[in-house]
Each structure stands twice: as structure tokens, then as C-alpha cells.
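Curious: explain these C-alpha cells?
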Amino acid sequence: MASNLKVIITNPQTVIKIPSGTRMLVRRSCHAALEYEQYDRRIDVNVVFADNRILHSYDDQRVSNIEAPEVIALPSEEEGCLGTLIISVERVTELTKVYNRPFEMGIVFASVHGILNLLGQYYTDQETKEAQMRKEARILTDMGFSPIVGI
């Protein structure tokens, strides 16, 4: 289904060295989230690896209601583009230390969460937050990651 997806990744930040394999993991995460949602249209997704400074420069455009700003999802009005995920690798690194998880887990979570935001799914109240977190946990589990419980 999501084989029609093209993930375009840029890395303008210089604070954190991106580990090898991270780009492929982001692509896999985006595919997994779209497949889970049975999204089968031909689409592009832009992903920007940012530091906290770059991430905050997008705050005015932010449309998702996220509590921990490791990812901002900016939907696109351009034909054939779902939108852009701005992932702060600096914030992902901070959170993985707090939760004692590998960096890869944080990147997968940010990617999956961002894709769901691009599809219009946000934490609007406690009920939708819990439902979306269950969905994120299922996608992460399907990818072979143990989801963070209780966040």
C-alpha cells in the first residue's frame, strides 16, 4: 500500500550526528504508519532533521497539538505531497535519555506520530490521546520496537 510513498529527507542541523541507518528507519516508519492507516495514494513526505533552534523556527506554522515538541507536522497543500515532518534530533536524543530508550526508538516514534498528525490525527483530549497512543504502540510493535508505556 504505502509503496507509493516517497520520503525526501534533508538534514540542515549540525548539532547531532545522524547515525547510519537513520534515514532508512525514518522511511520504514513512514511506510509502516501509512500502511497501518491503509493509505494507498501516491504521495511524497518531506522530513527535515532539525535541532531545537530550527524546530522552534517552525512554531508559527505548527498545526499539531503536541506536548513534547520532538516533531512538528506541517500538512501540504501541494498536489502529491502529504506534508513535512520537522524532527528535532536534539529533542529526540534528550527524550530517549529520559525514557532510557535507544535513539532509533525515538526516531521511529517521532516519524510515526508525525505521519498520523499529517493524516489529521492529533491529541485533542485525553480520549483521543489514549486512542492515538494505542495506535502508535501497535505500529511500533509491528516494526519490532517496544513502545513507551505511560506517556
Summary: The helical segments are 22-36, 52-57, 89-98, 103-118, 126-142.
